[in-house]
Amino acid sequence: MSQFTLGWEEWLSLPDLGLPAVRAKVDTGARTSALHAFAIEPFGSTKKPMVRFAIHPDPNDPHLEMICSAPMKDRREVTSSNGETELRFVIETTVNMGERSWPIEVTLTDRGSMAYRMLLGRTALDDDMIVSPSNSFCQPELSFDAYHGIPRSERHRRALRMAILTREPENYSTRKLIAAAEMRGHSMEVIDTSRCYMNIHSVGGEVHYDGRRLPHYDAVIPRIGASITSYGTAVVRQFESIGTYCLSGSEGITMSRDKLHAHQVLARVQIGMPTTAFARSPKDSANVISLVGGAPLVLKLLESTQGKGVVLAETKKAAESVISAFQGLRADFLVQSFVKEAAGEDIRCFVVGGKVVAAMRRRGKPDDFRSNLHQGGTAEPVRISRQERETAIRAARTMKLDVAGVDLLRGEDGPKVLEVNSSPGLEGIERTSGKDIAGLVIAHIEAKVAPKPSRARAKRPPG
């Protein structure tokens, strides 16, 4: 076996951490290797503990900051050369030097006052490695310039700490999002939205849960039920106020849950929809019916979900009876024209990050005009037209939603938006399309919160 010679200082890279260039001191007098780290934060489950930290890889450039994360291997006491003992997190990572790569154990500690951001101790050296104390850089030299101008597609994606706001931890969508996040090395905590409480003040603000202050999350996925929309959006706003990326923003959730508000917003940007009317007084019932072209027509409660509170009135008399019943309950509702050519079908377009990633055609039961799967409807894959695709994307963008389920009818004069869902279910669309929609959602979150290496003030030669 040929010998591998190292100088007392060397350049190396740590690809698992997304660090393309680190200048290290090689010290056989030290047993343990150490990496500069600050803002160290453990996260993840007890079975899969993780640790996240920040590093300034270039000692001369405090503006160059990288965020790293790795599985936590241990936490142990380490005594430094000056005799001080410190409890440090321990990770295992791959080191590249020249043409050689090997795994090493590294402890995390603040080396901000040190000239070298990494110390390579003797336990990190293989038996065939020889250190020449009088030589420097026996292996190929690197440069801190490697951190600048990295294409977005090649940026290192660190493990993210995420939370999902839901009161249904065992439903399909929740389980799939958790599995997709963990498959990509992230951690996901389930938070019951109704049990969150907030400390609202002018600096930062806090969200508390189950007697503790919640940590900073890279992203939050709101899946808030219609029954707690008001409180749920308040919780989302609090996360937004402290700088957390929320997959569905509070404004988008609020607009989408109020059907009248949603239709007004969509109409403002000339997105097609069934003719819609709204009134409060019983004296206006006949006028409202005539505005949508008469019977048959559809009546919808403003906050109905999954096809509940949606009624087809086939005659004017039936429509008046339903309107009278809704008004007697003091329930706000919409009156919409019935799109006969849709024949009990609609199209669900699933939009993620401004793209339609999947679509399905839903058909209602033979005796039901509603096509919702929760009402016994069926679904099949469907090819959508360019106009339908653009309409779905525009609707989601107008409602300020990064992820949305947009329901369309195929009308004679083009697609008509029925609803924009801010918390679309994954089960029907995944099973119908055969696509990993949960994985696409997590990939979108990665793209939104991936670290962006800062630019150095000036480029300098290596060393």
Automatic annotation (TrEMBL):
The keyword Manganese applies. Binds 2 magnesium or manganese ions per subunit. PROSITE patterns: ATP_GRASP (PS50975). Residues 263-446 form the ATP-grasp domain. Mg(2+) 2 binds at residues 419, 421. GO terms for molecular function: ATP binding; metal ion binding; ribosomal S6-glutamic acid ligase activity. Its cofactor is Mn(2+); Mg(2+). This is Probable alpha-L-glutamate ligase.
